[in-house]
Specification:
With about 270 residues, this protein is mostly helical. The protein contains 3 helices and 3 strands; from the N terminus they run H-E-E-H-H-E. The protein is about 55% helix and about 5% strand. Helix 2 runs antiparallel to helix 3. It is rod-shaped and about 120 Å long. The two termini are about 30 Å apart.
Length: about 270
């Protein structure tokens, strides 16, 4: 299910005692392949007697089945798995090599996640940019209207004052009307100034929203970078065992392992 396929050669050497009992749980790895076995004994070597059970063909069929069962229980490939990246090491990779390969995968994963984050925030940022442009346009328009209104009010009040001071009559209905008009103009001018202030506040509010959203994006990007670090990630150890149907016993054979005269084995076992 992990998409891993590997062939493992296994050789075992087990003592065959006088009773002819074979216990594969005590078998050792001789560190040899079948092709490395000597076809002939060393000159002058002596041989232990062959147990009678080893002379019966049925015994070998039993031992072969037991050997396959022992391999199923004891042989496994140790792999490493990265949960963050969903990657599993290859059978020929050690931990260092696997982490080196993960570094490339991590960069690709980080880039993909960062692109997803940027895409997720892009629409909201574009919306805020549009609102900022509209708010800037509104503020500029309000400033122009307020400036024009100030000029109109100044001219109107100036004309009214001059009319009152230098008119033929000291105070007339027309003069009072002009004064009232000037007062209304001044009120509208004050309103325009308030509109400018509100437009400026609205623009700053939208800019603050954008700054906050950009800060959120920056934090999210930093978290992605920190979350995928193959150099420090705690890898999960995975043991892959063979299926019984995939175990093929190529040979179960009788062999003599060299021992010294005192009984010390002269072969290396794992």
């Amino acid at each position: 299910r992990r998409g891993i396929a590997a062939a493992v050669d296994a050789a075992r050497l087990v003592p065959l005692d006088a009773s002819g009992v074979v216990d594969w749980t005590t078998a050792g790895d001789p560190g040899l392949t079948a092709g490395e076995l000597e076809p002939a004994p060393v000159a002058g070597a002596g041989f232990a007697p062959l147990p009678s059970r080893a002379a019966r063909p049925a015994s070998w069929a039993t031992w072969e089945r037991a050997f396959a069962t022992a391999l199923y229980r004891t042989v496994a490939i140790r792999l490493w798995r990265s949960r963050a990246l969903g990657e599993t090491s290859r059978p020929e990779e050690d931990e260092r090599e696997f982490r080196a390969r993960l570094a490339d995968a991590a960069r690709s994963a980080r880039d993909a996640k960062m692109d997803q984050l940027r895409d997720r925030y892009a629409t909201r940022l574009r919306t805020l940019d549009d609102r900022i442009r509209r708010a800037e346009g509104t503020l500029e328009e309000q400033k122009q209207q307020a400036s024009s209104r100030k000029l109109d009010t100044a001219v109107s009040i100036g004309a009214t004052v001059l009319g009152a001071l230098f008119g033929r009559r000291k105070l007339s209905t027309t003069t009072l009307g002009r004064a009232a008009t000037s007062a209304r103009s001044a009120s509208r001018s004050a309103k325009e100034a308030g509109d400018v202030e509100r437009a400026a506040e609205s623009l700053e509010a939208v800019r603050a929203q954008k700054a906050q959203l950009e800060a959120e994006l920056s934090t999210a990007l930093a978290e992605v970078t920190a979350s995928i670090d193959p150099a420090t990630e705690s890898l999960e150890e995975v043991l892959v065992k063979p299926k019984k149907a995939d175990i093929e016993v190529l040979r179960v054979a009788l062999g003599w392992a060299p021992h010294a005269t005192d009984g010390t084995p002269l072969w290396k076992s794992g």
